[in-house]
Amino acid sequence: xxxxxxxxxxxxxxxxxxxxxxxxxxxxxxxxQELKNGYFLQGQEKQALHSVFAENRDCLSLTITPTWECxxxxxHCSVLNNLKLKDDEVFxxxxxxxxIEQYIDVYHPKYVTFDFVGGEPLLRPKVCTExxxxxxxxxSIIVTDTTTNLSIDLDxxxxxFFEIIDSINVxxxxxxxxxxxxxxxxxxxxxxxxxxxxxxEILLDAGHGDKISLKxxxxxxxxxxxxxxxxxxxxxYMGIDINKIKFGCLHPTEHIKTSYNEMLAFQQSLQQGxxxxxxxxxxxxxxxxxxxxxxxxxxxxxRWARSQVGTLDQSLSEIxxxxxxxxxxxxxxxxxxxxxxxxVIGYCWGGCVNGQPLxxxxxxxxxxxxxxQERVMKMAEDGEIVHHTERQRPANILDLTLGxxxxxxxxxR
Length: 413
Fold this sequence. Notes:
Elements: E1 6-11, E2 14-19, E3 25-27, H1 32-37, H2 45-54, E4 59-64, H3 93-107, E5 111-116, H4 125-135, E6 141-148, H5 156-164, E7 167-171, H6 176-182, H7 192-205, E8 212-218, H8 225-238, E9 245-249, H9 260-272, E10 288-291, E11 296-299, E12 308-311, H10 316-330, H11 332-335, H12 337-340, H13 356-359, H14 369-381, H15 385-392, E13 396-399, E14 404-407
Parallel strand pairs: 4-5, 4-10, 5-6, 6-7, 7-8, 8-9
Antiparallel strand pairs: 1-2, 2-3, 10-11, 11-12, 13-14
Helix pairs in contact: 4-5
């Protein structure tokens, strides 16, 4: 007997069996062993779901927090409770590379990415530079970037860091008033907006314009067409590539809760029954880790919950096992019996986790399962189900930083 997640369809003029969770297909005349290996059989439903989250990627993504010190206390900061006035811990660079070597020995990733965040990474530029220099000896393609408020004095160490990093993501939230209303300095003498603006000029004069991306996160009342156009004009005129200027609303954090309108939009998205082939971005990764100055390792999609998966002193197998247990205990569909019985769970996944304040762990109470099932079955009957997934997962993702394309299978999706 086939799994409830398997539908019959056609692809390239062949009859196939398509798995709506794993998004893999087999010819309809395949062997029983092939069905078993692909989790196509009845009773293998949970194995299929777990395989989506346990699948090893071709890219090891490391989010490095060199320090929890920061010169600002932004109202919308998702790690505000972790920030310190003084952080005496020295980032364990040697242990980091021992962990990387262990991962490479097991999984052989084609790419290794380093994302330097904070705190404020520019308060530890030497550590960031050392990591990038040592990473060049790794037998993988290395991609590096940093996210910074860019509102500190730029010394020689900072400029050396900017010289060797691939991408610089600068947080600047709208105009002078809007930015400073959210980004509160520890020192009253600092004007965060003006300092960031002046430092942008320094980086542009140093020839780093092709590395810079701007990211603005504004309150709903500031999101207007006029504000957006003014923002684009100002920084495009300065010399920032207009395609690297991102302008959006604040994401809910521990300090800024999900708004009623956002929850309502989540509810409506479930009721529309639109097929979504991939789970929420909080879960769809198996090779992304945040590493802190203490050597603690957190799973980045769960960072909002401060979920630790281990330390740099532990084995990789222990860390991966803890992460899988976290998914088992927190993934909303695993907690909702109606979701687990749904034959098209792989085209819904319980929606975005930001909707949890509304559905309280039971997205099936809001889901239009009948409509969704009809749409998925229609795609299968028309031979469009494979093509639909391919359209939702384009062949590659544009990497604006490097001006090239990285294959999607090498990016955590």
